[in-house]
Design brief:
By secondary structure, the protein is mainly alpha-helical. Helices cover 72% and strands 0% of the residues.
Length: 197
């Protein structure tokens, strides 16, 4: 919808839609790779409207990470906790997602992983959001692992969840490098065999 910035007039654009456009820019190019002019061009909004809706560039980045959490991380966690699907299949689907993305010609990777490498050590708010995202995924992996093997000790379950999360994150980073990802399938098969009760 058209952005009219007249005083007293309500915004005539959807905040979530615009934020998803901004998210896509930061996800693909990182904080330093995105300028205000890039955001203005992508959203078709003027600087004043962007600042009024989302704040400065740093605020836009943080809100984009929040949107990624809602759109992607929360959905992945729900899938890992979905009791209507066998736990082995839930975990395998999570681990094979990076390879499937590459096969679909998508090498944008995981915004959490990208933000962790790009900004988490430079900005405490980014670090907190990234940490929350990874903790959400680790907890969901623990849920799936517990369903897979109810007798698994909590400490062992947590260790396995961290191992799977590290593998997933590594795959996402490797995919962004442009490297051949065919080996991922064999690695996932090996790991899935090792976690069977």
């Amino acid at each position: 919808m058209r952005d009219r910035n007249a005083p007293g007039r309500p915004r005539e654009f959807d905040d979530t839609e615009m934020l998803r456009k901004i998210m896509a820019l930061f996800w693909r190019s990182g904080f330093d790779g995105v300028s205000l002019s890039h955001i203005m061009s992508e959203t078709k909004l003027q600087k004043a409207s962007l600042y009024a809706a989302f704040g400065d560039k740093r605020s836009m980045y943080l809100k984009a990470l929040q949107q990624y959490y809602q759109d992607v991380v929360a959905a992945a966690a729900r899938a890992l906790r979905d009791g209507t699907v066998p736990p082995h299949a839930r975990i395998e689907a999570f681990l094979t997602a990076p390879q499937k993305a590459v096969e679909a010609d998508d090498r944008t990777g995981c915004f959490l992983c990208n933000a962790s490498a790009d900004q988490a050590d430079l900005n405490t708010e980014t670090q907190a959001q990234v940490k929350q995202g990874f903790e959400t995924l680790a907890d969901a992996l623990m849920s799936a692992l517990t369903d897979l093997n109810p007798g698994l000790e909590k400490a062992d379950c947590a260790a396995q969840a961290q191992l799977l999360l590290a593998l997933y994150s590594g795959f996402r980073i490797i995919a962004r490098s442009g490297a051949d990802t065919q080996h991922m399938q064999g690695t996932v098969a090996h790991v899935m065999t090792s976690i069977r009760p």
